[in-house]
Fold:
Amino acid sequence: TENVWRVPEAEQPFPERFRESGYRTAGVVANRLLGSVERQAAPDAPAVVYESGFQLGFDHYEVFEHQPGARGSRKGPPNSWYADEVVERGTRWVERTDTADAPYLLWLHLFDPHHPRRPADPGRTADFRGAADDAAYEAWRAGLPADLQDRVDPEAFAWVVDQRARYDAEVAGVDAALERLFAWLEERGELEHTVVVLTADHGEGLWRRPLPVGERAQPHNQVPALYADHGIQLFDEQVHVPLVLWGPGVGPARRVDTPVSLVDVA
Structure:
């Protein structure tokens, strides 16, 4: 078995900088691709373990590793921890770790707003499902390029409305989990002393435009003429993600209009 690291040796992951400065560091990750993934090109080929490198610099690192038939965890999308489980695991680490004499860095990677769009609370989907009537369908159809308007029907539109509502319900689940996290910090008297950074790695197409050249329609997409997921494109709905910072030293509340990048977080 060969181990392949995706992080260049010359680079220092930012958790290592925190740890060198005296922080205790922990990460809880719902996406198993940010751990170790084993691949085999052919049955007789040696296995290759791809190490994401995201675990570097963390004293404690939990990553969801799905095993068929595994028990002991609710399964979110796709077979990952839901946001409230990630928050619970992160706060549990803080509570059992001596953080009285040292600050801590806690990274919580939430995976809920993602295919296969299975919200933790399916009942919330109805809260976000808009109209799928003839008028809404015609307005959606009219917004598409002329060559695509005859390739979508009311049944496809109703499915898209449902899928978008499921996505919004997943976002609401993350929102509720973060509310519990901040309440927990406040109960401990730590919220006003904590710098919080909220961001994302990418957005989703969600059937806003035609499937771009170079992208492959995913099998789960019932409207393959339209772009539903994420991939090699740089459209706004993929790269215009939230970046919110607040806490001591951040300064007065304001909106920054200048483009920034995820590398600016470090």
Observations:
- The longest strand covers residues 24-29.
